[in-house]
Write a structure and sequence with these properties.
Elements (H helix, E strand, L loop, with lengths): L8 E3 L5 E3 L24 H6 L8 H4 L5 H4 L1 E4 L3 E5 L9 E5 L11 H22 L3 E5 L16 E6 L7 H5 L8 H11 L6
Antiparallel strand pairs: 1-2, 3-4, 4-5, 5-7, 6-7
């Protein structure tokens, strides 16, 4: 049996160090180590198929649908706001330009201005409706940076509360979302200023 030297040992279930075998990788299955695993098999579609082309891009398709079907909260001239289908928290919005492009530095000045304006309005509306304590706002640029749909620019607006889940999804592999997406969309759309953007 091939083994690593004595400095390469893993703690067994009973806390006793056991030698790690390198000739049989399946030996490590189920052996606890210092890392926790976050299994995300639903993201394999991005690995296997890559980013969808313009025709299959969900951010290009959404504006062609009705607001309720696409979870769109507000539409502007150059960009729109919609709910994230896989939210980190209730009220997690995305602001997307209509035009299909990947990186923020490819946006026109008009697109940048409207993305910014929609983001500010979204923050005000979410705060009014949800009484949240803060936000995570940002863009993941490229697949390597964590963008699920890296071919179409989108900005995340995630409401946060002092007592929210924080790392609950990572530690417990659970998301606590108290409202259905359709209900959240209706609340935000109804609160959205009619003359905004």
């Amino acid at each position: 049996m091939a083994r690593l030297n004595d400095s390469h040992e893993a703690a067994g279930a009973d806390g006793i160090d056991v030698p790690v075998r390198v000739d049989d990788p399946s030996y490590l299955v189920g052996v606890p180590d210092e890392f926790q695993r976050l299994w995300t098999p639903h993201r394999m579609v991005y690995i296997q198929q890559g980013d969808p082309g313009h025709e299959g891009c969900p951010f290009c398709v959404a504006p062609t649908l009705g607001d309720e079907d696409a979870l769109i909260v507000a539409r502007g001239k150059h960009a729109y706001a919609l709910l994230n289908l896989f939210p980190y928290n209730s009220g997690h919005l995305l602001v997307c330009p209509y035009r299909h492009f990947a990186l923020y530095d490819e946006a026109t000045p008009e697109e940048v201005a409207e993305i910014s304006s929609l983001t500010q309005t979204a923050m005000r509306v979410i705060r009014e409706v949800s009484r949240n304590d803060g936000f995570n706002v940002g863009m993941n640029q490229g697949a390597v940076a964590g963008a699920g749909i890296s071919a179409h620019l989108h900005q995340h607006i995630v409401p946060r509360w002092a007592q929210d889940a924080n790392f609950f999804p990572i530690i417990a592999r659970t998301k606590a979302l108290p409202q259905l997406l359709g209900d959240v969309r209706a609340e935000l759309a109804n609160a959205w200023p009619k003359n905004a953007d």
